[in-house]
Amino acid sequence: MIARPAVARRVGFYAGTFDPVTTGHLDVIERAARLVDRLVIGVAHNPGKNPLMPVDERMLCVEEALPSIRQRTGSEIVVVAFHSLLVEAVRANGATLIFRGLRVLSDFDYEIQMSGVNRRLDGGIETVFLMASERTQFISSRLVKEIASYKGDISEFVTPATQARLLARLAMRAG
């Protein structure tokens, strides 16, 4: 009997600020999870974006949305925080693929630059672009926060748990 070599697990990394995690993010997470054995969701500290929610709360929002995605994809999905260069976080989590979601042409301009820089920093890491589905391509965390701040209905853009946390944060900020 000939021994078969062990098949390497495919590990991907999907990074974002996720402030808040939207149905657009969740769509990319589910589609990316179908392509790998293990998907790491990296929640960036990114103070430059002045996030509304602290990183631990953003991680919780992502984690709360994952059970049904894990069930549908059969992929292992974990959530981690990171405060480093993306390629360092990818390496630290044993990933070789970076997943990026693209909504509009302007996303592509930025993402292609990032992909090139990441490739120069580590040639062993590949970037995979996933186009947003037509039902989510207009959604952004910034717009969701803006709609919520004016008391608009965000229920179709985020999970109920995320909506509750986001509205609570906005109420705290208001005073």
Layout of SSEs?
Layout: E1 11-16, H1 23-33, E2 38-44, H2 55-65, H3 67-73, E3 76-82, H4 86-92, E4 97-102, H5 105-121, E5 126-131, H6 141-149, H7 160-174
Helix pairs in contact: 1-3
EC number: 2.7.7.3
Keywords: ATP-binding, Coenzyme A biosynthesis, Cytoplasm, Magnesium, Nucleotide-binding, Nucleotidyltransferase, Transferase
Binding site for ATP: 17-18, 25, 101-103, 111, 136-142
In a nutshell, what does this entry contain?
This is Phosphopantetheine adenylyltransferase. This protein is of the alpha/beta class and 175 residues long.
Question: What do you see in this structure?
Answer:
This protein has seven helices and five strands; from the N terminus they run βαβααβαβαβαα. The chain has a single domain (11-174), classed as Rossmann fold, CATH 3.40.50.620. Strands 3-2-1-4-5 form a five-stranded parallel sheet, with helices on both faces. It is an alpha/beta fold and 175 residues long.
